[in-house]
Amino acid sequence: MAGYQSIDGLASNLNTTEIINSIMEYERRPVTLMEAQQTLKTNEISTFNALSAKLLALQTSIRALGSRQAFSEASLGVSHEDLVRATANGAVTGGTYALNILSLATNHQIASQGFDDPSQAVMGTGTITLAVGDRSPVTLKIDGSNNSLTGIKKAINDADIGVTATIVDDGSSSHPYRLVLTGDETGQKNKISLTTSLSGGLGLDFETASFDDPEIMDFDARSTSRISLGATASYTGAVNKTFTFTVAGNGAQTVGAGNIVINWTDGDENGSIVVSQADTEIVGPDGLKLRFADGVLTGGDTFQVSAFAPVLQQASDARVSIGSSLGGASPLIVRSETNKVDGLIPGVTLELMGVTTPATGPVTIKTGLDTSGVRQKLDTFIAAYNDVKDFIDNQNKYSSDTKEGGVLLGDLTLMAIQSRLNRLISEPIGGLDKSMNMLSAIGIRTGTNGKLSVRDSAKLSEALENDFEAVLRLFVDSGTSLNDGISFVSSSADIKGGTAFDVDITRAATRGYFQSETITDPATAGVTLTGSNNRMKLRVDGIVSDEIVLSARTYASGDDLARELQTRINADDKIGKLAVTVEWVDLGTNGYLKLSSASYGSRSNVEMIMSITNAAYTVLGLYGGTAHAGDDVAGTINGEKATGKGQVLTGNTGNATTAGLKLLITLTEAQIGSGDEGKITVTKGVATTLSESLDGMTKAEEGVLARKTGGLQRQIDSIKEQIESFDERLALRRESLVKKWAEFESMLSQLQSQQSFLTSQLENITANFSQILGKN
Fold first, then answer.
1. I need a labelling partner for 453 at 20 to 30 A (CA). Which of 29, 75, 334, 390 fits?
2. Inter-residue contact 306 to 96 (CB < 8 Å)
3. Are the CB atoms for 87 and 288 separated by under 8 Å?
4. Domain for residue 12, yes or no?
5. Nearest to 446 by CA among 463, 422, 470
6. What pLDDT does residue 1 have?
7. What's the distance, CA 761 to chain centroid?
8. Tens-place pLDDT, residues 1-10
């Protein structure tokens, strides 16, 4: 081809390139048609992808309406948000409640007498026994390694018994360091009890109120009298406070030379004492007695005495009254161990932060369904549906003026999607009451343009406020059963809505448990645990606990023993939240311990880890005890096989009518008989039916649109191959034409050369002939 690149006009003066291009353009017309088809199908794919994006947006909006939680948004109004914080924790009904917060729940807090140095080992040695509420007491050993205030603090904190110890510097000039014990939990029952048995040093006193030594605040340089506590001073109050004393009068006053008036105040009350002689006890307020030594006091001298009460804060419950006393009514007073109160208002958790007063008045809480939140979700769904509708309508448009239509005009897949959406929006939901089985029942319907809208807002609001459960069932999957032990959990796309399913249970789900050997009732002889036999370790539902240390003491009853196990298991970081229950089963003169898992099924189990030292297994009968795994529920649904896991029974994959249907079975063995235990009717709400249908349209690879665009892409690829093949043949055709034109030009050039030669020869012959004739 290199020799045929430039052939234009070599011999013929013809534009052979233009001639060849025209020929090739004509012969390539089939390729042009194929390229147009390729472009059209590419546009169709882009349009279907855009439709898929809008359908996915519609699916997201309808899924937001597919759960009970979506319809359970509460509207809560609180008149004093600085006193109460209210949050919804379930279905909230409408109502107005008047609350008076009479007191807050507090944790117990006590303080010891003061010490000069927290790290100096000045305390006695022996034991300190602590208990919180009705929990088993814990005894701590105090020896030469920890008999300082700091050492005792660490021992208490390391014991992890529900008490936190801290050392506080109260800033006083003498004995400023106090050990403060604070209960970890609030509530009246969580009071701290403490007994000490220390000898050979200082003891700990958390009960005696006392006065600190007088502390000089501002004394004149002339003042020489020294002030001390009287030997019989004993604080009779119960509040920590400071008394400030100021010497009355002017100038120097000699103690014992006359009456010296000294005024005092504690911030709330005030008074005065009179010093008439030196070194005698002068009676002051609240059991305070002072001694003034010989010397001088000066008018304006000030000193203070701090009064200490060991109970810094009482353990108390929160108390809330609900209701009004108007008209002779009597409000109900509710107590709570914590400042978080559940159940007082249905579906609402209250967090108490302050106490009401006559000035604040009661806290008014208004509850109701947040219909605005539901309306917003509905509006989002309607907008997404109408967006899809507009998109499809635009594809179906045709302009008679431009003779152009939408990319997907007349496409059967598009028409099928449109028809399916219209049917899903307008058809009734099987299994629901006819009065509330369509969107139109809550005021949502299509107009003449096919778009959705809330045509009757009052109807929607009324349905949400007065028939919430019916509206919920319209959107959310549900199931109804006459047997309370059979309830609906969820269903798959294979389950047909409005269908009733027979349920036959052959085995109830049970909880795993560990049962000890029979031991003598501790009420008869007592069970004694010491440091050498008070440890245990459990595996509950596959989770292994830390080593659990039981209190070293004698247990006088089986219930006392079970209570100790329960307390220690609940406090374990690994299994404490698994809700293991411990009970003593009384058989008369003997009995056994039973530890039960809270879960159900074959994975529910309680086991003892035997490989520990100082174990309590032998004395408690646990060494020869038996672990019993729980049972999974078993049965059939609609006569088809089902698989049990815990209390959930699921229709097997491949079942004709029940694949993926999940039911919660809470029946006990005593409630199971021969034949069916009940029947459950499953309803699939609008959210599920529409979402499942949209999933069938938009699902990757398997969805309608994926199959459609996949087919179009294969057509595009096939056209591309045809074009490439055709272009390859055209390239050969062009090469052939170029070659022929080159040969033509070459031949024409040769002919032209011959013509020139012959013409030259003829001219020479003519010239020679003319010369000959002229000579003659």
1. 75
2. no
3. no
4. yes
5. 422
6. 44
7. 110
8. 444 455 566 6
Contact indicator for 275, 260 with CB cutoff of 8 Å: yes
Number of domains in the chain: 6
Tell me the sheet residues that pair with 651: 642
User: Residue 598 has what pLDDT?
Assistant: 96
The whole-angstrom separation of Cα 85 and Cα 233 is 47
To which H or E segment does residue 15 belong?
none
In this predicted structure, the answer to whether residue 515 has a pLDDT above a threshold of 90 is: yes
User: What does DSSP assign to residue 92?
Assistant: -
Of 704, 709, 706, residue with least CA distance to 692: 704
3-state secondary structure of 178: strand
99 and 113 inside one domain: no
pLDDT of residue 11: 64
* 102: confidence class by pLDDT, cuts 50, 70, 90: very high
Q: 256 burial class (0-12, 13-18, 19+ CB within 10 angstroms)?
A: middle
Say what the pLDDT of residue 9 is. 62
Residue whose entry in the numeric block shows the structure tokens 């013809």: 14
CA–CA gap between residue 568 and residue 551 (Å, rounded): 9
Specify the pairing of strand 241-247 against strand 95-103.
unpaired
- Which amino acid, 102? L
Q: Is the pLDDT of residue 670 over 50?
A: yes
| CATH value at residue 177 | 2.60.40
Whether 413 and 472 share a structural domain: yes
* The residue count for the chain: 776
Q: 336: domain range?
A: 74-105+317-369
- Residues 378, 468 within the same domain: yes
